[in-house]
Amino acid sequence: MSSEENIAVVVLAAGGSTRLGRPKQLVEFKGKTLLKHTMDEVDDLGFQTKILVLGARQEEIQNKIDPKGFKVVINTDWEQGMASSINVGLKAAIAEEEGLNHVLFLVSDQPFLERANLIKLVHTQLTQRPNATYSQYGRNIGVPAIFAKEAFPLLLNLKGDEGAKKLIYAKEFDYGTETFNKGGFDVDTEEDVRQLKKMEA
């Protein structure tokens, strides 16, 4: 599937976790870190190109994870916001895989991410051929999300804290969605961590 379509995966994990005060990438849930969980869910889907974008506390994070086929790239401008990580990750994917057709973006703090979510996104993108397919949780849409190459210039033009969701407001930007139950639960604060621990059982 992915080898024919030239899909790259980019995991965005460069943020500073300022509200939490420690790397959310390394918060543990069901015996593994959130970052490892994300990487594991990607791992068995056959993607040729897998990029992991790190930034804040990257040495600490790298010391505690096995990149396992992911090419690690460092966003030295991570403090400028999400757009800088999208830029670094997309450029790395383009450099890594000639003729890239799609990029699937994920973040590292969605504990309820499952392979099935990613398979549905890719299937919708490849069969319906919009500019992008986003995950939908409640009234929100966001990541994981997959983008066709026609959207790459728009992604590279994002600035500051702008995430890829901004593109849905672009003129003539065609997008689809796939439901991701519990996709809206992410880890930003110690209260989120406490809630997560309660859900481990």
From TrEMBL:
InterPro entries the UniProt entry points to: MobA-like_NTP_Trfase, Nucleotide-diphossugar_trans
Gene3D superfamilies according to UniProt: Spore Coat Polysaccharide Biosynthesis Protein SpsA, Chain A
Domain MobA-like NTP transferase, first and last residues per copy: 9-169
Source superkingdom: Bacteria
GO molecular function, one term: nucleotidyltransferase activity
Pfam families, sorted: NTP_transf_3
Designated name of the protein: 4-diphosphocytidyl-2C-methyl-D-erythritol synthase
